[in-house]
Design brief:
The protein is of the alpha+beta class. The protein is built from two helices and seven strands. The longest helix has 28 residues.
Length: 124
């Protein structure tokens, strides 16, 4: 049964370690439509305050980090050589993993090509 959360909307607990949800978002690259969020949690109490703050910060800062994200992807993706081409290969979802530690890392990941290879970008 989905749980409606004020920050994450409709969430489902996977039964042993995490909550999952989708959150629509207006990305600076038009092919992506939503964040697919995986929120690590040791129980069914839901996201911690730190995880909530981290995700709010990601949404607030995503667009300003887009140039750094594209540069990072170009550095590791063999078939993309121009930062402007990254937006063309982005998929519908951008995955976000919110860890349980007190120093939750702000990170986003997503599939870039037909082989569903992933990138993971950490935000400082």
């Amino acid at each position: 049964m989905p749980n409606i959360d004020p920050d994450f909307g409709s969430m489902k607990y996977n039964g042993f370690s995490a909550w999952d949800c989708r959150i629509n978002f207006q990305f600076p690259h038009p092919s992506s439509k939503y964040f697919a969020v995986h929120i690590w949690s040791s129980d069914e109490t839901g996201p911690s305050q730190k995880q909530r703050e981290t995700f709010r910060e990601l949404k607030r800062r995503y667009e300003s980090h887009w140039p750094a994200i594209t540069s990072s992807i170009v550095a590791v993706h063999a078939s993309i050589t121009d930062p402007f081409d990254v937006a063309k290969v982005m998929r519908e979802r951008v995955g976000v993993h919110l860890e349980t530690t007190s120093d939750t890392e702000l990170a986003a990941c997503g599939a870039l090509d037909r082989w569903n290879r992933l990138f993971r970008i950490g935000f400082a």
